[in-house]
């Protein structure tokens, strides 16, 4: 059974968001964190790392047969810049996180979305976000699987941000 924290459909739903190496290189980490903070979402996991090749391959396993897979894994893991991995919590954060990111191909991303405001090219689209509850569960355990890496904490703002009545 899913734990109370992180359960999709609850106010504690969680998603995995990452700033990819191009986003770190372009100094957009603060901008991206800020957008999720200002929306009202709660940061419950955060790390900076050059992901091991095996982690990147597992993360993108569903794309392993695509022609761009090798280049994608190299871009994520070659160490020219690290990745910022995050777990964000709040109502509908999986779906809303994807909306905040914008379409995969920045040529189709709306203005006002992260990709629509900062990107031009599908191979340099600066952010990742889980695309479903299943992906969120897989990706959070993959990137934040260690004990205590995701932190349960109570925001003193919560009653001013979340009320379903
Ligand atoms: N990607 C790419 N070329 C493509 C499709 C995808 O380089 O034709 C990269 C791009 O960085 C994208 C990632 O592969 O963000 C994962 O693809 P997916 O379809 O899962 O898009 P996302 O979930 O990131 O929007
Ligand atoms: Mg995806």
From TrEMBL:
* Gene Ontology MF annotations: nucleoside diphosphate kinase activity
- The chain positions of domain Nucleoside diphosphate kinase-like read 12-151
User: Keywords, A to Z?
Assistant: Kinase, Transferase
Write out the GO biological process terms.
CTP biosynthetic process; GTP biosynthetic process; UTP biosynthetic process
Q: Which domain of life is it from?
A: Eukaryota
Which protein family is named in the record?
Belongs to the NDK family.
Q: What is this protein called?
A: Nucleoside diphosphate kinase
Q: Give the species.
A: Linderina pennispora
Species lineage, top-down? Eukaryota, Fungi, Fungi incertae sedis, Zoopagomycota, Kickxellomycotina
Q: Which residues of the full protein are shown?
A: 68 to 232 of 232
């Amino acid at each position: 059974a899913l734990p109370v924290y992180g359960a999709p459909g609850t106010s504690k739903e969680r998603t995995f968001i990452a700033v990819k190496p191009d986003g770190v290189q372009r100094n957009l980490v603060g901008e991206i964190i800020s957008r999720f903070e200002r929306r009202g979402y709660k940061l419950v996991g955060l790390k900076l790392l050059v992901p091991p090749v095996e982690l990147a391959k597992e993360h993108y396993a569903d794309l392993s047969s695509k022609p761009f897979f090798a280049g994608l894994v190299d871009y994520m893991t070659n160490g020219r810049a690290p990745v910022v991995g995050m777990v964000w919590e709040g109502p509908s954060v999986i779906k809303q996180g994807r909306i905040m990111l914008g379409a995969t191909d920045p040529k189709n991303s709306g203005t006002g979305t992260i990709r629509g405001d900062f990107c031009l090219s599908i191979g340099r689209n600066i952010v990742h976000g889980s695309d479903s509850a299943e992906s969120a569960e897989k990706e959070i355990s993959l990137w934040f699987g260690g004990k205590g890496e995701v932190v349960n904490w109570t925001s003193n703002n919560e009653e001013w941000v979340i009320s379903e009545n």
